[in-house]
Design goal:
The protein is mainly α. 46% of the residues lie in helices and 9% in strands. The longest helix is centred in the middle third of the chain and has 21 residues. It starts with a helix and ends with a helix.
Length: 378
Amino acid sequence: MAWALTHPEAFGIARGRQKPLIRPSLRAIGTLLYPDRATLTAALILHCLGEDSGYNYAVLMEKSVDSLVYIGEDTALEANVKARNQSQDTRPTSTASIFTPGGIVEVLTAISRFSRHARRHLVDDAGAQPPIVGRLYVAHDSEPAESKVLTNTYLHNGWRADVFAHYWTLQTDHQTVSLRFRALRLVAQARAMKDGLKADVHGHSERTKVHYLANSLPAHTFHQHATEAQNAFHDDTVAGFRHPNVNDDHPAAAALAAAAEHGTVADVEVSLCASGGNDPVEPTKPCSLGIVACFECPNGYRTVDQIPGLLAAVELTHIIEDNNANEWETGEASQLRFFAQAALDQFPPLVIGNVRRSVDLTPHIHTVTGIYLELRHG
């Protein structure tokens, strides 16, 4: 035992392989003092599955002796570092069992003591101890300076150890089954899903967490829940919708247009005409007031369907301003722009932007141009 403690290099990995020892009993002692790849692999699996934590591989490789902050006799906060962006957070865990993340950290802290002791003299260029000194998932190396966290190769070598095959209870051959860490995470997430969305997945935003949890469900179950959620959203939205009423103090344009008699509403691009395009004072005669009058006429209403026409009207006025100074100065183009832009400003900018991106305004500009030229005054 004393010789094993004073010769840690004899039990480490050299060039990816363990050094051969003369006496097998020494190997057994060394395994107890310096955790091998199989032990670290087993701890890694338990760490991911314990309390359905679902930690990813990179987060577990950051675990160190100071990862736990004790807040009670059997409880602690487990510090987590996401290696990709070095973001940090904490997660409550129990230390009452070796099958919880907190328990695993405690066990690894204990059994890696002598391995970490062999790395204690390592310093970086600034004279400080590098993080590898306190890391828990580190394969014990014959040369401490070459120590590194459990690589993919080491992980799969540990998985192939006889100890895993000895306790393999499935009908398949253990040697033909690979260790897929992402599958372990999905198992943890599926278990967390059964506990409801209050269960957390480390390092995920709410949106990402829902995405991962959705992918852990069978397709038919996910589709059923997704459909039910969409139906519920639709029903709640429709139930809360207030239909416009012509008897309101300030009735909506859609309500007033809808109240008009069937067949009497005409679409004149920048407005809906409730008198069918006829004069508001003399309904039997065609209207000759001009396109600008539609914005002041009591029979004119604008809904979202008129947005393309309003955009076309504004565009037409820019064409007139750039190419016909006389018409811009003496005609109705400046008034048309004022009223059309004021009408557009009453709609949400997002709606205006969607229409502008998805609708070809060319035919609308042609129509507005025809109405403007035919009915302009002056």
